[in-house]
Amino acid sequence: MDSATVERLATRLRALATTRSSASGAVTVTISSGSGPRVRIDDEARLGHDEHSLATEIEYTVYIVEEEYFGGLMEMSRRVCGRLGIPWDDTAAPEDRAWSEVEALGTGESDDGAVRVTVFDGIGIAVEFRHNAVRRTDVSTVALETGLDQAMAAARRERRRALGRARAARRGD
Predict the structure, then answer these.
(1) Residues 6+ apart with CB under 8 A from 10
(2) Does residue 170 sit in helix, strand or coil?
(3) C-alpha span between 63 and 125 (Å, rounded)
(4) Are the C-beta atoms of residues 148 and 114 closer than 8 Å to each other?
(5) Cα–Cα dist 165/173, whole Å
(6) I want to staple 51 with a disulfide (CB 3.0 to 4.6 A). Which of 13, 84, 86, 129 is the partner?
């Protein structure tokens, strides 16, 4: 593969992004090669939610966006392998596991403690709003979004450390 082709593929990879809105329009999630999921909450739509319903809407939308994004990434990888003559085994995908078997690999909390996020093995997150943060008028939507970003980043850092420890244990480090 020549350097121009490699550069075109790298450009396409950097440009890979997915954005979706939830069914109610209250939540918009974007994921790109440069960052993890970014959640945006509509100010007015927030008023129609409580902690549980908004958390559920965020969890579902993040799951859909991650599934679509990583599916696109896998398809791009499959094409590159095809161009390079490298066999691609579509049956090598990990088997589905029951929800109870999914391992929580990272948990993070916002600086103010109002948002807690758990990141699982594979894709998917669990969101917990605390201190009545969604319905409180003294907590801005921007503050909720910032709290989500902080908690997701902390959970993903913890997940990376846990995966690193697991790899080191397998190598015998």
Answers:
(1) none
(2) helix
(3) 7
(4) no
(5) 9
(6) 129
Residues 6+ positions from 92 with CB-CB distance below 8 Å: none
Which of 77-86's residues contact partners 24+ apart within 8 Å by CB, and which partners? 80/9, 83/1, 83/5, 84/1
In this structure, which amino acid lies at residue 48? G
Amino acid at 29: V
C-beta separation of 106 from 119 below 8 A: yes
Distance CA 96, CA 17 (A): 25
Give the containing element (helix H, strand E) for 30: strand 27-32
The whole-angstrom separation of Cα 5 and Cα 80 is: 10
Q: What is the pTM of this model?
A: 0.81
| Distance, CA of 4 to CA of 37 (rounded, Å) | 30
Whether residue 62 contacts residue 20, with contact meaning beta carbons closer than 8 Å, is answered with no
* Tokens representing residue 84 in the block: 């390079």
pLDDT at 97: 44
